[in-house]
């Protein structure tokens, strides 16, 4: 969870230099050089907060057919309560943990899959989609995506959830 700053030298292209402000939870993705002679699109620094990587990875994982939900049992319970509260919105980062460095990130996902899907195939599809989305959107290199399958959603679970949500038949 550090920030990177590129500082050009007179004899060499921009070189990475650590930023002492590491408490921000952001990572800088820096392009080009500073100065009036550099192209406008490369002047300055872009920082990406860890929560951005969490949200991108969470949305990318949920796009894959066969993924029913994300997170462990307790976090899913709290999420279900939050989703039922008026004005509450779903937590797209539930079940996602990230470790972000200067140019790389590692991602851990907790998934609940639908009964009947091939878990290995779903995990591979999730991994590919998350890596593609995070690398495309943030510019960070994804070094690994670890996936833990915490539960299998059974068709009977929907009947129980539907009847528990309504007080009258």
Q: What's the layout of helices and strands?
A:
Elements: E1 3-7, E2 15-19, E3 26-29, E4 46-49, H1 50-62, E5 67-70, H2 73-84, E6 96-100, E7 104-114, H3 119-138, E8 141-153, H4 155-165
Parallel strand pairs: 7-8
Antiparallel strand pairs: 1-2, 3-4, 5-7, 6-7
- The total count of strands amounts to 8
Q: Which structural class fits the helix and strand makeup?
A: alpha+beta
Query: pLDDT under 50 segments (min length 5)?
Result: 1-23
Strand content: 25-35%
Index terms:
169 residues; alpha+beta; four-stranded mixed β-sheet; two-stranded antiparallel ribbon; 4 helices; 30% strand
Structure notes:
The protein has helices at about 50-60, 75-85, 120-140, 155-165, and strands spanning about 5, 15-20, 25-30, 45-50, 65-70, 95-100, 105-115, 140-155. It is of the alpha+beta class and about 170 residues long. Strands 5, 6, 7 and 8 form a 4-stranded mixed sheet that branches. A hairpin with a 3-residue loop joins strand 6 and strand 7. Helix 1 crosses helix 3 (about 120-140). The radius of gyration is 20 Å and the shape is elongated. The termini are far apart.
């Amino acid at each position: 969870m550090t920030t990177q700053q590129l500082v050009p030298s007179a004899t060499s292209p921009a070189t990475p230099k650590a930023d002492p402000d590491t408490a921000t939870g952001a990572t800088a993705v820096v392009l080009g050089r500073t100065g009036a002679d550099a192209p406008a699109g490369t002047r300055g620094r872009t920082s990406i907060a860890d929560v951005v990587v969490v949200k991108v990875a969470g949305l990318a994982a949920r796009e894959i057919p066969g993924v029913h939900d994300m997170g462990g049992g307790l976090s899913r319970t709290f999420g279900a309560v939050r989703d039922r509260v008026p004005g509450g919105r779903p937590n797209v980062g539930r079940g996602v943990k990230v470790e972000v460095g200067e140019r790389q990130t590692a991602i851990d996902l907790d998934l609940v899959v639908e009964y009947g899907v091939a878990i290995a195939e779903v995990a591979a599809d999730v991994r590919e989609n998350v890596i593609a989305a995070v690398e495309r959107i943030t510019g960070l290199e994804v070094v690994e995506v670890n996936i833990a399958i915490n539960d299998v959603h059974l068709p009977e679970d929907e009947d129980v959830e539907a009847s528990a949500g309504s007080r009258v038949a």
